[in-house]
User: Fold this.
Amino acid sequence: VGFDLELGQAVEVIYPPHSKLTDKEVKYCLFVVYVFPHVGCLGDTQFCFRFRRSPGRKVSLCCFLDQLDRDLPVYLKKDSAYYYGYVYFRQVRDKSLKRGYFQKSLVLISKLPYVHLFRTMLKQIAPEYFEKSEAFLEAVCSDVDRWPPPVPGKVLQLPIMGVIMKVGTPALADAQISMALPTVHEVDLFRCFCPVFFHIQMLWELVLLGEPLVVMAPSPSESSETVLALVSCISPLKYCSDFRPYFTIHDSEFKEYTTRTQAPPSVILGVTNPFFAKTLQHWPHIIRIGDIKLPGEVPKQVKVKKLKNLKTLDSKPGVYTSYKPYLNKDEEIVKQLQKGVQQKRPTEAQSVILRRYFLELTESFIIPLERYVASLMPLQKCISPWKSPPQLRQFSQDDFMKTLEKAGPQLTSGLKGDWIGLYRHFLKSPNFDGWFRSRQKEMTQKLEALHLEALCNENLVFWSQKHTEVETVDLVLKLKNKLLQADRERLPVKTDTLKKLQTHINDIILALPDDLQDILLKTGTT
Assistant:
């Protein structure tokens, strides 16, 4: 995206050429990728934005990405309703141009939240692209076309213009945090939270509960990094509400999110325009970020500020809220991070400590819920091949609360406080709704898979010999539908089980009269 003195922002080239964005999507990107003068960004700036896809668009992702999605943690799955925009913006003085500045952005649009990978990639290719232009992009796309499909749990070695990028891809069961190798999605947590790290536990609660949050920052870079850090702090839980790393007045939800006629929605916004300091002043939780720098000294502890003290974007950095945390403050993590600053511990190591702290806190919170929800699963002995799979039992808030006395977070966390109140609040949040829907889907698919296995273990040919042709044909059609469902929904079924069921179907059909065989062999897939 370049800047034309007469036309304003304009798309200079799109690669690959067959990529299609709607006019509305292109128009939005044109505005958001150009960092307006109020931000004062001279030099190179990288940031990320996120926007809703136009309705009615067809989803076009390769089948290998669907397979990848199944094996990835929920927070790394593709986002079918939104696009991520990864931007490398250059603004430098150039007297040879009428405007006096060279201004151009290289933008990578993706459904994937691979922040670190795409940021690293743009950092590698953008400076050279600004010098060499279109032919260089064609060469970059050629390199990307040769990248192998990502494999969860494996290290990716991705060639890009003579350089090999090495990044890890977490698998579904990964609990380890690597310090040696960055993953495709991670942001520098400590750098982002450093200005407010005395309040990290409260911020974790606010994100967990899906509270409306605004990050006011001096630049799109600080804004987007802080929002992405907030969203990632409840990992391995997925943040299920909307979040906008860099929100502008050009976003289609601008009126919806800034209106005072209704309560602020469950969303995290990152903003830089001073206009928002007044427009979003009624929001209940506001984080004011100054210039993000790695401190050479221990940051001073700053109390939570009252919202009425926030009048402009120039207000002092800090957290502005009247929220009272449910849990007592964990002083140990603060001391550990302060000690790291004093000892000049590398920021990467500080981020690992912080990420591990958030992970353990979230897991302590979610394990009791996982344990209770697992108890809603019917016993395997209740699964009959000749009946529909049994239903999951209903989630009961009262029953769950009763389990906390003996099997609550106190088993894995030493933190004291009102855990019960935190759970009650969480059960009303979009994050619980999204998490529970995901678990319901997983368990329902598991029941379908167990039902398939139960069918495979039956002598279906013998059964068909004892029943009428009509009943046998009905069974064949149902079994074929089961196979189609297993493929369509990617049920967790072994390949051998599916092959065995296909063999059963073929054997049953071959035992039928020729005319029925012809009809059934043409019906569905066999």
